[in-house]
């Protein structure tokens, strides 16, 4: 992006720019000039293209003009959003001294580098999601990840086994946009995730301790500390400020949570859909009825990390039960939470000193809601949130400080004026009075001058170039006499503008009052903001309590609205669920058909057969989703549920190719199966859908059988295994812990009807040709498939693909034999004894039409 340039040929200002650019070569430099941020050289070319703004040029002392573009400083946020969204870093260069007081060139410095992982505000920052900056370090037999959300101050550290696909999966789970690595880091390790999404990779040499932040790294080992301090050093280098909202690193212990790998999260559509990669129609969107953005973020984290501690899960169930029994109080509590704004990110903006007047108003309204929330929690006797009571007094103090100072009609920015309440500061009131009285004075002056001159159209005006003036039309200018004391200031095509000594004196007073007023107001606002900044730890404590409370209220509301029930946990690994539904699909369909699910203590493998589109995959998914819902502390979509606590879920569902590595369907299938077979324990849940379909029939069947036998012999965990290989159903005889079930379907008048009910035993047929008919495959294909199937089922030696050599496909048109054959097939498929007279007549009419073609 940056090439060495001979700086001596340029003007002092351009040399200043080039020196800064040299230090920040990997960033686009936004160079403040007056009311604009300007970009030069290649930065201007790149920015003009990406931002779709005009590329121009300017003289900079060299023989050739320098490419240039710019954006207004007051609307820079939108432009920064667009650039960071595309993976760019932007170095913000500000004037750090008053141009009026500068001796020579105005001093400028980089005040912040904004990168994809350090965005703390703007349109690209999703209120319901975290924006993590992740440090990746290669340790001894492990990867160490330290990650931080600068908008909230949260910090975490975790470790994963040293496998590239696991690293990619973890980074995808965190929705990572930027990683920080040491110089010399093998970037090939990040190749798998780079295929899936744009990833900014930044280097940071320093990994030493930051003394004043030492407490943040307590309880980390040597390698974890190194990774964490590299992250913090990068943050300090780019943000260039003391960030008081950074919280101590939380060491993520994987054994405390159910493991759900990237493939399982994707296959189960927990947080985004497979097809459109969107939040809508996911388990997350179904469960998220949170009143606050903090609650939504907390819920998403909870969904990705289900608990395995029964006591903690039951505590959440107790809260849902209690909320459900106190309907009126729960409604009042929801209304109170509606008054709470995003305290985590307000605390972040206070730390960055970017919080505006409306942030403080939102903070005031949030603090005002805390006492009411405390009272309702006490009345509902909800344990676990009483710590909120301890913060009431400090909340009241901060609320009062803001209430006293900030106007309820404050603008978005303090620089716009009007943020401070009248009566808060006597000097400010006096300066404002001068401005207010000036309006009256100017109106009186205008009226007096009209009477004196006899010019009824005379008016007093103002612009930023000439200040205040008296304006008369060209036609009336002849009435202006010397004794009026008018001094000609400007001549326009239709008007003349004048000033008087009196008007000039008043102008000085007015403009000085306005300037002093705004400067004082900004100073007063900053003082109030600094007062709030001291209470950032308070706001973070409030945010943690309110986030979890909001999530639990959401769980309770969804459970009540959708008739979910409290699950019970079994100690013998038994699964027993009555009338289980899919929580997402049932909301999209008024006719969703529930099913039971039962695997006894000595039954580990459920072998599921039945037709395509019959509901096998949905049935498997809803069992896994029920387990996840149970372990995040939510009630479950069924009439009754008894489940074990699972330590992990592994799935292979669907035929999508791998978005990470570009592998084929079958290779992805085998990779995901391998993950399950090598990482699952007896306490895991495995979902395998139609394993082996990506290869030859006998290969696939052999692999499927071998996998089933391996799970039974070596893992002994609960497994849902769907298949089209009906030959596998005989395994029920040799694998005692395997049980056959099937999704039911039936033929009516030659057409398949899906019943979507799971019944005991194996399916009697797959209905593949019936499904093909539903898809409107060409008639010759249906007939040939039927012929081949009949031969295969009667075990004729010339059946199947081997007899295709002498097979002559029927003509598409005018084939009497073909029509008759199809008519006979239709007649043979009719269930005459169970058809009504009308149904029989309709079937006969259908056959007649076929023969008449």
If you had to describe this structure to a student in words, what would you say it looks like?
The chain is of the alpha/beta class. The chain folds into 6 domains: 7-114, MutS, DNA mismatch repair protein, domain I, CATH 3.40.1170; 133-252, Nucleotidyltransferase, domain 5; 310-417 and 535-562, MutS, DNA mismatch repair protein, Chain A, domain 3 (Orthogonal Bundle), CATH 1.10.1420; 426-529, MutS, DNA mismatch repair protein, Chain A, domain 3; 568-760, P-loop containing nucleotide triphosphate hydrolases (Rossmann fold, 3-Layer(aba) Sandwich); 777-852, no CATH class. The protein has 26 helices and 27 strands. A 7-stranded mixed beta sheet has the order 13-23-24-25-21-26-27, sandwiched between helices. A 6-stranded mixed beta sheet has the order 3-4-2-1-5-6, with helices on both faces. The protein has a 6-stranded mixed beta sheet with strand order 11-10-7-8-9-12.
């Amino acid at each position: 992006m940056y090439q060495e340039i001979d700086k001596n040929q340029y003007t002092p200002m351009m040399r200043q720019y080039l020196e800064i650019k040299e230090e920040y070569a990997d960033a686009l430099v936004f160079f403040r000039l007056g009311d604009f941020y300007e970009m030069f050289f290649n930065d201007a070319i790149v920015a003009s293209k990406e931002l779709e703004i005009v590329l121009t040029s300017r003289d900079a002392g060299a023989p050739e003009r320098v490419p240039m573009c710019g954006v207004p400083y007051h609307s820079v946020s939108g432009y920064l959003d667009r650039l960071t969204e595309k993976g760019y870093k932007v170095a913000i260069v500000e004037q750090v001294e008053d141009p009026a007081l500068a001796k020579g060139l105005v001093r400028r410095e980089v005040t912040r580098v904004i990168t994809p992982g350090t965005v703390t505000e703007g349109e690209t920052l999703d209120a319901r999601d975290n924006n993590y900056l992740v440090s990746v370090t290669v340790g001894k037999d492990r990867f160490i990840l330290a990650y931080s959300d600068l908008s909230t101050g949260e910090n975490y550290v975790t470790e994963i086994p040293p496998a590239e696909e696991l690293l990619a999966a973890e980074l995808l789970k965190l929705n990572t946009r930027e990683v920080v690595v040491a110089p010399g880091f093998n970037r090939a390790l990040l190749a798998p995730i780079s295929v899936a999404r744009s990833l900014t990779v930044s280097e940071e040499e320093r990994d030493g301790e930051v003394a004043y932040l030492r407490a943040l790294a307590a309880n980390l080992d040597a390698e974890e500390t190194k990774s964490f301090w590299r992250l913090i050093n990068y943050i300090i280098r780019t943000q260039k400020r003391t960030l008081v909202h950074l919280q101590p690193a939380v060491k993520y212990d994987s054994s405390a949570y159910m493991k759900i790998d990237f493939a399982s999260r994707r296959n189960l559509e927990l947080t985004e859909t497979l097809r459109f990669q969107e939040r809508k129609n996911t388990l997350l969107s179904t469960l998220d009825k949170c009143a606050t953005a903090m609650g939504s973020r907390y819920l998403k984290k909870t969904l990705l990390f289900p608990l395995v501690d029964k006591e903690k899960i039951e505590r959440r169930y107790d809260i849902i039960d209690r909320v459900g029994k106190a309907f009126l109080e729960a409604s009042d509590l929801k209304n109170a939470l509606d008054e709470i704004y995003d305290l985590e990110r307000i605390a972040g903006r206070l730390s960055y000193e970017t919080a505006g007047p409306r942030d403080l108003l939102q903070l005031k309204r949030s603090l005002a809601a805390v006492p009411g929330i405390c009272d309702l929690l006490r009345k509902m006797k909800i344990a676990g949130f009483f710590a909120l009571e301890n913060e009431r007094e400090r909340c009241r103090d901060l609320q009062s400080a803001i209430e006293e100072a900030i106007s309820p009609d404050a603008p978005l920015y303090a620089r716009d004026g009007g943020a401070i309440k009248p009566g808060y500061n006597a000097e400010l009131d006096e300066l404002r009075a001068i401005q207010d009285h000036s309006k009256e004075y100017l109106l009186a002056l205008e009226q007096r001058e009209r009477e004196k001159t006899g010019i009824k159209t005379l008016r007093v005006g103002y612009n930023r170039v000439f200040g205040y003036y008296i304006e008369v039309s060209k036609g009336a200018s002849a009435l202006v006499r010397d004794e009026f004391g008018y001094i000609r200031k400007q001549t326009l095509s239709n008007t003349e503008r004048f000033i008087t000594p009196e008007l000039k004196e008043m102008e000085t007073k007015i403009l000085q009052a306005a300037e002093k007023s705004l400067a004082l107001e900004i100073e007063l606002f900053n003082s109030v903001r600094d007062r709030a900044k001291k209470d950032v730890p308070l706001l973070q404590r409030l945010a943690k309590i309110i986030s979890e409370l909001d999530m639990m209220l959401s769980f309770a509301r969804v459970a009540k609205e959708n008739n979910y029930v409290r699950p019970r946990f079994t100690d013998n690994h038994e699964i027993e669920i009555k009338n289980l539904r899919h929580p997402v699909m049932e909301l999209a369909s008024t006719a969703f058909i529930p099913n039971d699910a039962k695997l006894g203590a000595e039954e580990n493998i459920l072998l599921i057969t039945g037709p395509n589109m019959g509901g096998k995959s949905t049935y498997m998914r809803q069992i896994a989703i029920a387990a996840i819902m149970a372990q995040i502390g939510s009630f479950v979509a069924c009439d009754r549920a008894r489940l074990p606590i699972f330590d992990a879920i592994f799935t292979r569902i669907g035929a999508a190719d791998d978005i990470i590595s570009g592998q084929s369907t079958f290779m992805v299938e085998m990779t995901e199966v391998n993950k399950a077979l090598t990482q699952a324990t007896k306490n895991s849940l495995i979902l395998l859908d139609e394993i082996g379909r990506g290869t030859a029939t006998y290969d696939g069947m052999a692999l499927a059988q071998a996998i089933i036998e391996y799970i039974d012999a070596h893992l002994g965990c609960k497994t849902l295994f769907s298949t089209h290989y009906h030959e596998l159903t005989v395994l029920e005889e040799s694998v005692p812990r395997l049980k056959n079930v099937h999704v039911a379907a039936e033929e009516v008048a030659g057409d398949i009807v899906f019943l979507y009910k799971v019944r005991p035993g194996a399916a009697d047929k797959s209905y593949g040709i019936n499904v093909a008919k539903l898809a409107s495959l060409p008639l010759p294909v249906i007939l040939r498939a039927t012929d081949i199937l009949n031969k295969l089922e009667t075990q004729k030696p010339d059946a199947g693909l081997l007899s295709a050599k002498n097979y002559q496909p029927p003509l598409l048109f005018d084939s009497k034999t073909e029509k008759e054959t199809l008519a006979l097939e239709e007649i043979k498929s009719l269930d005459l004894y169970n058809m009504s007279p009308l149904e029989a007549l309709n079937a006969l009419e259908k056959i007649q039409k076929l023969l008449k073609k």
